[in-house]
Amino acid sequence: MSQNPPNLRPDLAPRARISEAPRPGQPVIGMVSLGCPKALVDSERILTRLRAEGYAISPDYAGADAVIVNTCGFLDSAKAESLEAIGEALSENGKVIVTGCLGAEPDYITGTHPSVLAVTGPHQYEQVLDAVHGAVPPDPDPFIDLLPAAGVKLTPRHYSYLKISEGCNHKCKFCIIPDMRGRLVSRPAHAVIREAEKLVEAGVRELLMISQDTSAYGVDIRHAEERGHRAHITDLARDLGSLGAWVRLHYVYPYPHVRDLIPLMAEVQENGGGVLPYLDIPFQHAHPDTLKRMARPAASAKTLDEIAAWRATCPDITLRSTFIVGYPGETEEEFQYLLDWMDEARLDRVGCFQYENVAGARSNDLPDHVPDEVKQDRWDRFMQKAQAISEEKLAAKVGTIQQVIVDEVDAEGATCRTKADAPEIDGNLFIDEGFEALNPGDIVTVEVDEASDYDLWGRIV
User: Fold this and answer.
1) Superfamily of domain 159-395
2) Residues forming the annotated binding site for [4Fe-4S] cluster?
3) Domain TRAM spans what residues (predicted)?
């Protein structure tokens, strides 16, 4: 068992997990998947196609005939990490195909690593497959290479990310994701529902809904209704909640219509499924002037009033968010405003970035950039505030009864999550007695008997 570090970068997906062994003579493709859960879904789609063509899959470059590196380009530090991963794969394997967000800048990659076999941008699946075919021809055996009904998954069997749209229509000055991934493109609602049904049929107990802007789902297709399902976030959440699995919402902008989701979260689910009382909302900051310089879409929203209204409807709701400190022009007064806002908002789960310039972002050209030492000081103070709030909120859960989902079981105990905790980015609940019969994916009822800054301990009741 291990405790999640509180400074885990809040944009990262869980590490890829693959345990399938190749058959003798089967061509093997390695996958190094970096970045966010949306990139992890892209990796799963690529690997599902390759698996259907007879390739075996490795979680890294060891023993692979070629390696795909799915890169991240969100921050300059993420770009550097991607270049390092490409270099490591080249030195260990030699045959490397690059895809993902950083692939939108092929010259940036080939300038450092000219020997890569191919560079493709995000969600360019066909080009990735073509590059793999050129490097390692497929050798399928139709009697052996059977594809699982739910495709290849890089997460544990009991939870899965469900991407409902691609791209984003916002023009936040610090972000280049729309330049790399394009404008909003929503999937038809019936296609999302069908994928979710297949996942639940295959044993998935928790669906994590992701996109670049979940609240905007369906806007681009005018909330079209097809095959009995309407492409609107409220309708989609309701439909998904009827499948019997937990449904967790990520990347939800606080538009006014978000309040229509809250009654779904307040409903009692007798079968243990439904829309969890959990919202992941990227507030990024609280001061109106900072938000205006960021060109954030929610700059004028009365977020504290919205939060109060959500909690009035669903008192058990868990709110997670991410923030940027040290944004260009951020004064000490603006930062203190953010700390005071945190005291009022009392968010349950919080992640924080120190602002970084990113090539191509409009924020690079803003005046009054904040010195690194000031950014570090503000990050420390912000996280100290967030930690104190988290510690107080978790202490209040001691003695309560919680439903938890089991993620891992080892000799020391079971690592679980409450409905208030998303995989990797939030806390855990640990069971260290009477756990021997538990298995990953089990949903059990516990009484909380101990709390720390970010995690809980409990016993089965």
Assistant:
1) tm_1862 like domain (3.80.30.20)
2) 36, 72, 101, 168, 172, 175
3) 395-461
